[in-house]
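re: ur question from yesterday

yeah so i grabbed the chain u mentioned. its 183 aa long if i counted rite. heres the sequnce exactly as i have it in my notes:
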Amino acid sequence: MLDWLQDDECCCKVFVAVEVGPDTSEKVLEELRSNPALKDEDLMIVAPGRIKGAITTDECLGCCSAIGTGVFQISGVMDKDGRLVQPVVAGDRQTLERLVSNMEDHGHDITLVKLATLETQEILTSRQEDMLRYAMEKGYFDDPKRITLVELAREFDVSNSTVSEMLRKSQRKLMGEYFKART
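ran it thru and got these structure tokens back, copy pasting raw so excuse formatting
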């Protein structure tokens, strides 16, 4: 825990995705649920070997070490070796160095896997972004869906086919950027 935080000030609620062997899902889920460091959890097995959900803890998972550094954390995942892979966005290299130093000072073993510069070019039009964000927030991509294509079309006062096309084009652009960044 950071010296300048009171015990009750560092409460981390994070989304987690855990990949394990398909035959160990139940065991790992039970171990997570019985972990005394977790104040609360909403975890479920979403597929054989895949556990997803939210956990709340006051133990330092990295987010407490990141407080005050000016770094934004993006949803992390556990790799097959049980290590947390945590993408972060920092305004400059010094901010990233401050985060790494702070986390190392608090006992975290940090490995920089990839360093990239964010492009300022917009990937989506504002209309595509608005629709995609709304669809995401309202549960269009959830399983089961919490909002239908028809309801989205009604909200944006466009046809079902227009919503479908806009979502498909938006997803294609985002996936294209994602895979381009990974090559």
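noticed a couple things. The chain has two domains: 7-105, 126-181. also The beta strands are 12-19, 38-47, 50-57, 72-73, 77-78, 84-85, 88-89.
anyway ttyl
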